[in-house]
Amino acid sequence: MIQKKKHAFNLFAASKGLRSTRQRDSILDVFLSTRQHVSVEELYLKVKAGNPGVGQATVYRTLKLFVEAGLAREVLLHDGQTRYEHVVAGEHHDHLVCTGCNAIIEFENETIEKLQDEIAARHGFLIRSHKLEIYGLCSACKN
Amino acid sequence: MIQKKKHAFNLFAASKGLRSTRQRDSILDVFLSTRQHVSVEELYLKVKAGNPGVGQATVYRTLKLFVEAGLAREVLLHDGQTRYEHVVAGEHHDHLVCTGCNAIIEFENETIEKLQDEIAARHGFLIRSHKLEIYGLCSACKN
DNA sequence: CTTGCTGCAAACAGTTTGCAGAACT
DNA sequence: AGTTCTGCAAACTGTTTGCAGCAAG
Q1: What is the pLDDT of residues A52-103, one digit of tens each?
Q2: CB distance from A116 to chain B under 8 Å?
Q3: A123 inside 8 A of chain B by CB
Q4: What residues make up the domain containing B31?
Q5: Domain boundary among A86, A109, A127
Q6: Interchain CB distance below 8 Å, B105 and A99
Q7: Fewest beta carbons within 10 Å, which of B17, B45, B59, B111?
Q8: Number of domains comprising chain B
Q9: pTM to 2 decimals?
Q10: Are residues B81 and B99 in the same domain?
């Protein structure tokens, strides 16, 4: 899995004439080793731990490459930070966001996706992407 | 309708010991006269047109009051600006966002809402709010 | 050696905040 | 009079960018 993603990125890099650098490698390693929804800041700190002297700018720039390469996806939650999640081919999930503990629970629901397609069709709208976020309290926080 | 909202804000203001000021009145007027999803900047410009010398900060501060008073709701789309929409009691709608012309089409779908409730229940999650945004191209832009 | 990549710091955009003076009650 | 509000400008936050030097090909 991780190897596959590295390979995917290498292919992308090659096709774009991008260079392979120490920084990109370690940012990719760290990204792949994280759980879902890392903020740039978190990623930056982890990368710097194993590789001091890497700048934030590089992390920002590299994450955009990952998005372009189809490895990562931007997730904007209500906390003023851009987060990135892993892209798993053919899968789409949405989020339950706990405003108590900031936990994020993922879910998938085909019926909702289908309804969205219908709605879009009804408006002559061409869907590129969508996001559904449900905010509230998780089972641990609601008590 | 507009009168009702003004009244609602007055009640809120009174209950909080807030003062009634020229600025708040005109920001409320302008907000109520706008269509959905105004950005702070848009609102600020319109307010200033009818009432020069009103500062942005006041617009920001006042919009937060409207949210607190239940008249407005923050909407964060993918354009780096906070927008506000009108709250209509008991109604919830979601958005089709055209990335071509920035048009926003609203829709409502009860089945989706129900499915969300089911999903939340399954995870022991207490829903406070949610948002569903579908990004793509509207009928005019997709050609 | 050529060109792309990096780190740094400065620039940016949107938003928030401190404060002195203005305005509401 | 006593407080709350306001406008201004400065501060802040997250992100982007310009540039000189570094490094991959």
Answers
A1: 889 999 999 999 999 999 999 998 877 778 999 999 877 888 999 888 887 8
A2: yes
A3: yes
A4: 2-86
A5: A86
A6: no
A7: B17
A8: 2
A9: 0.82
A10: no
